[in-house]
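To the team - NDP complex, inputs and output below.
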Amino acid sequence: MSARSVSILGVTGSVGQSTLHVIEELRGQGAEIEVEAVTAGGNLKVLAETCRKLAPKFAAVADPSQLAEARAALHGLNIEVGAGPGALQEAGARPAGWVMSAIVGAAGLEPTMAAVRRGATVALANKECLVCAGPLFIEAARQHGAQLLPVDSEHSAIFQVLTHPERVEKLTLTASGGPFRTATLEAMAAATPDQACAHPRWSMGRKISVDSATLMNKGLELIEASYLFGFPSESIDVIIHPESVVHSFVHYIDGSVLAQLGAADMRIPIAYALSWPDRAHVSTARLNLAQLGALTFEAPDTAKFPALDLSRAALKTGASATTALSAANEVAVEAFLAGRIRFLDICRIVEDSLAALEGNEAASIAKSPTSFDEVAAVDQAARDAARRIAGSLAAA
Ligand code: NDP
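Output:
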């Protein structure tokens, strides 16, 4: 791998730490990887440990009131420190050729856009910024010559086997089914945050873990795939594949189906994005097909997991509806993780928030946004509606 400069937005999270491990391994093989900037939400302990290993030039934390504390945590490391939204954006804007976008939620949008606007190669783990700003985000990448490399394992899989995009019949996204694949509705109704976060295959942050339990993660991925690869909802299937070995399929017009397989380890798509268009050696677990024996697939239960149909409907309605869906879901998941609502309330809040916005003139979900300001207005209106509905459910 040739020498390169990278930045990692969301370095303290699950994807951020996997990126750190890949960089350490490649550096150990002699790769020259300089780290320009890193960002954290509020985890200063992990930020300091990471900075000692990566030696970035700049580190930003989300909360402006944490500036002094962050400076103290990074004291002696010769790192410039910033705090607040401007500092997060500066991290994206600094001159790294490759930027990992791994902040969770719509909070990742502006820092990632700062990298997109200067034409960087953006490794996109954060799916919410694409779901939230969809066509505008893709158009900005095109205009500024930014290369988007999907890191979500399903989208990385599709990207790796999408040899003839114009000859594709359909895509199939695989889903593990999450921790409640075989649970009853009664058990799901009583599920605790820890149960919802106990993913059977992947170790991830709490927000995406809850999304995997509701299957909203797959709904968001369906929207992400539609915007990223330019296919309509009807051309994207979802199949439950509990072993999480096949990471997605591309079906071609001659009946051939191409897939990418691998262990359920985010270091694989991260290393692919970091070494693209080449490949690098990473010490991830290797597949032992004989030991696996069989792979299973089943249709998703859309009655038990309404998030899939909600996501498809939002995608059909248009880009503002997917903004609203993602924003309402963020609020609902936060309320669930804080113990204020029940697990099954999450999709109900998303559905009711979208319905509440249908007649909203100021933030209409029927219109496609023409600017990032319009995206922000719809995002805010959906969050307000979701908070109202969550509040009434919590009080009931
Ligand atoms: P985590 O919750 O583990 O990490 C999130 C990161 O974002 C942390 O660095 C966190 O900082 C930071 N952060 C949180 N809130 C804010 C904020 N308001 N402003 C700035 N930074 C903030 O998430 P994951 O790593 O699991 O996921 C990151 C993204 O990647 C998500 O969009 C997810 O959907 C996507 N993804 C994740 C996968 C996985 O395997 N984990 C797989 C595919 C996609 P701190 O911890 O310091 O508070």
